[in-house]
Design a protein that fits this description.
The chain has 56 residues and is of the alpha+beta class. It has three helices and two strands; from the N terminus they run H-H-E-E-H. It has a domain of 36 residues.
Length: 56
């Protein structure tokens, strides 16, 4: 089975910029919401440590 010329041209690889636009925000989200950090003697996530500055 042959692929028509128009379909073959429309299936190209995404550019590096497109891939970075996907992975950079995803990596930041994982870092902020899932990676635990230790502040003083407490272990928390970055998002929670910024939300409650008085409890530091």
């Amino acid at each position: 089975m042959t692929i028509p010329q128009q379909t073959a041209q429309s299936r190209r690889r995404p550019s590096l910029m497109t891939v970075l636009k996907l992975f950079i925000p995803s990596a930041l989200g994982i870092l902020i919401f899932f990676v635990p950090v230790t502040i003083g003697e407490r272990t928390t996530i970055m998002c929670a440590s910024k939300a409650l500055p008085g409890r530091g």
